[in-house]
Design goal:
261 residues; MetI-like fold
Length: 261
């Protein structure tokens, strides 16, 4: 019994050590957000200092933080909704009406994620410029939808495959149309999987930085572009960068809670 208890204590201590290591960067970022720029780069790092809110005030004075946050919310939710709108019918067809090309199509869709984003930056930028979609929410929504669509299709496809075909066949025997079958039977059964897929899509869109930095300037710039603005050729403004990152983390946590609900 004593040996079992000591083993449990050992695992508990190990778990706490891992948790502290994982949480420490977030804690230090939060702590740095209340330091001055001088204190933020002091050597050795200061654990005890006089806190200040000047970084948060400077962030709001420099630009409207809530405008960037609103852009992030609109783009992440909009791209997720559009991706689900396209992915659900595609996953339904592939899961219940497969052909000999279905697996190849799925693999091809997933392989597009292996292409470096910078490899298609120039043509995508030109297309957005010609279509008048530069620095617009609609442009980012379309790009983010195309980026996340392969993963969304794959995940929903895997959830649809777990639904017994007999349930759908019984529904068809009762005279249900394809739309009724999808709406009243399949979607309620796969709702937890669709919800988790939507949450992942929101997180991926929220954290996407490459395209927001290259396709937006101010009007449609999300929080990732806002945080990147605190770097300069002279270096990084660590205190202000930490304050902006803290606000972003808080916004993302709130967004995830809304998605879980």
């Amino acid at each position: 019994m004593a040996r079992k208890n000591s083993r449990q204590w050992l695992w508990a201590v190990l778990g706490w050590l891992v948790a502290v290591l994982l949480f420490f960067p977030i804690f230090w970022m939060f702590l740095t957000s209340f330091k001055t720029e001088v204190a933020a780069v002091a050597t050795p790092p200061q654990l005890f200092f006089r806190p200040t809110l000047e970084n948060y005030v400077a962030i709001q004075d420099r630009a409207n933080y809530f405008n960037y946050a609103l852009n992030s919310i609109a783009v992440s939710l909009g791209s997720t909704f559009l991706a689900l709108l396209l992915a659900i019918p595609a996953a339904y067809a592939m899961a219940f009406f497969p052909t000999k090309r279905t697996k190849g199509t799925l693999m091809w869709m997933l392989s597009t994620k292996m292409l470096p984003s910078v490899g298609v930056l120039v043509p995508v930028y030109i297309l957005c410029r010609e279509a008048g979609l530069l620095d617009s929410r609609i442009g980012l929504i379309i790009i983010y939808t195309l980026i996340n669509l392969p993963i969304v299709v794959w995940m929903i496809y895997s959830f649809f495959k777990e639904v017994p075909k007999e349930i759908l066949e019984a529904d068809r025997m009762d005279g249900a149309s394809t739309q009724q079958e999808l709406r009243h039977v399949l979607l309620p059964l796969a709702l937890p999987g669709i919800a988790s897929t939507a949450l992942l899509s929101i997180i991926l869109s929220w954290n996407e930085a490459f395209w927001s930095l290259n396709l937006t300037t101010f009007d449609a710039a999300p929080l990732t572009a806002f945080i990147a603005s605190f770097s300069s050729p002279q270096g990084l403004f660590w205190a202000k960068l930490s304050a902006a990152s803290t606000l972003l983390a808080a916004s993302e946590t709130h967004q995830n809670r809304l998605g879980c609900r």
